[in-house]
Design brief:
single chain; five-stranded parallel β-sheet; 19 helices; 3 domains; alpha/beta
Length: 479
């Protein structure tokens, strides 16, 4: 175990971040990448725990201590291969996973006060190095099985499942209503967290491996679910959840009150060079405006930091709990504060005040934390006192996402859903109420993390492989 357990003599050091003022001028990723020696030095801080809590708390159960040791020893290709063995998108997870809540937040060294091993930054470094050196191998399909799979949704769950299924030898078709694959990786997450060529090269690799993408294909319009079932031996629903949660206060329908995903999609499309009329006319453009974002999750952080880069006059984030109880990454909050965002804690909208039909102010109630709710978090309640008015030309609702009404949209009333609208699946087989139709990712678990979507894609591909093998065997017997 050469040159490990160096956490006492070597302080924690993340890759340098670009100056806040400079990075607020563009959509490039804010952190530089490790030099080789720095990556090796930081990896050597790992204590090589007998019970690696970093791996335990990683949804993918990545072999983190093992590839840290290989990195510390300069065996970078082996480190990449081990990292890639459990994840279809390690460099994407290295960029956008909330490591402070998962692997790094549960690092034993963090508990000793020496600062966690910088796992995410090393993961990003190792996989980017693999792309540069040509170590990322093409997707090679297994022997053809004569069966096909349709995957609805080209987000992380769908792409992950498609890759594994193609590796098993199935013909795989991916259907997505957007004109580019990637789902939220492409259109929801800003470039300063995930530059788009990082996503594109993954998709290109899948296309080169024979996976057929049907982009701009809306199930329910271009084909019903039943029609897709007739084309394929099995179908996977991996649409994610996109329906914005509403704010039921006066003025919620005023012009200038917009949904977070609409706002982020417009910005990302603009970065691709697309024509975006809603951006050009100012409807989804923060330039020169007083911007108020409602919410405290990672989507809210994406919105406030995008508004800064678009040249907003001011940017405030309203969250009904305090900083310690917000769901978003604390690192993202710190990045936003560095870039000029003002956080208004314990504050919630009481009304959106409009002049005519256009919003001009947000009237916000001051909040306080009461007794704990069912989740164990202290529930916010209105603190009796004067509401505060703050100027707002653009209000962005970032309160999370719910499932769309797929049975209605897809003319599939027999598709079982939960009371939250998410697709109901059998816990063991991951199959829906329809034979041969599976579901995975956020459309099953609700809005969650990309790393969980990748895990779900991996799990459902194994379940589908088992189903398809049995189906093929039964067909042979019947013949």
């Amino acid at each position: 175990m050469a040159d490990m357990l160096r956490f006492v003599e070597r302080p924690q050091a993340y890759p340098a971040k670009r100056d806040a003022e400079a990075r607020a001028e563009d959509f490039r990723e804010i952190a530089e990448r490790y030099a080789v020696q720095s990556a090796e030095d930081q990896s050597a801080r790992c204590s090589q725990c007998g019970v690696p809590y970093c791996s335990v708390h990683c949804p993918l159960h990545n072999h983190i201590p093992d590839w840290l040791r290989l990195t510390a020893q300069g065996r970078l290709r082996e480190a990449y291969e081990l990292s890639n063995a459990t994840s279809t998108m390690p460099e994407i997870c290295g960029r956008i996973c909330p490591q402070d809540r998962l692997c790094e937040g549960n690092c034993v060294i963090e508990f000793t006060g020496h600062g966690a091993v910088t796992i995410g930054s090393v993961e990003k470094f190792v996989t980017d190095k693999a792309w540069e050196e040509g170590w990322v191998e093409p997707l090679v399909p297994g022997p053809a099985r004569g069966q096909s799979v349709g995957v609805i949704g080209a987000g992380p769950a769908g792409l992950s499942a498609a890759e594994y299924l193609r590796g098993h030898g199935y013909e795989v078709h991916v259907y997505d209503r957007h004109d580019r694959a990637g789902g939220l990786l492409t259109y929801g997450i800003p470039g300063f967290k995930l530059e788009k060529p990082v996503v594109t090269r993954r998709v290109d690799r899948l296309k080169a491996g024979g996976i057929v993408f049907h982009e701009g294909f809306a199930v329910g319009e271009d084909a019903t679910l039943d029609e897709l079932r007739s084309r394929h031996d099995a179908v996977l629903i991996a649409t994610g959840v996109y329906k914005a949660r509403a704010i039921e206060v006066d003025g919620h329908d005023a012009a200038g009150v917009v949904a977070a995903l609409d706002y982020l999609t417009a910005s990302n499309r603009k970065s691709f060079g697309d024509q975006v009329p809603e951006f050009e006319d100012g409807s989804l453009n923060a330039a020169g405006k007083h911007v108020v974002v409602i919410g405290g999750g990672d989507t809210a952080m994406d919105c406030v930091r995008t508004a800064i880069r678009q040249g907003a006059r001011s940017v405030k984030c309203l969250y009904r709990r305090d900083r310690a109880n917000m769901p978003g990454s604390q690192r993202e909050v710190a990045n936003a504060e560095e870039e000029g965002v003002e956080f208004v804690w314990l504050s919630a909208p009481a009304a959106f005040v409009a002049d005519g039909d256009r919003v001009t102010h947000v009237r916000a109630n001051r909040m306080r934390l009461g007794s704990a709710d069912a989740s164990g978090r202290r529930a916010p309640e209105v603190d009796p006192g004067a509401a505060e008015d703050m100027p707002a030309d653009l209000v962005i609702k970032a309160l999370g996402f719910d499932a769309e009404d797929l049975p209605h949209l897809w003319d599939a009333p027999e598709l079982g859903v939960t009371r939250w609208g998410t697709v109901l699946v059998d816990a063991k087989t991951l199959m829906t109420s329809l034979d041969g139709v599976f579901a995975a990712g956020d459309i099953v678990r609700g809005a969650s993390l990309v790393v969980w979507a990748i895990r779900d894609g991996r799990d459902v591909s194994a379940a589908m492989h088992k189903y398809l093998k049995a189906k093929a065997a039964n067909t042979k017997v019947a013949a």
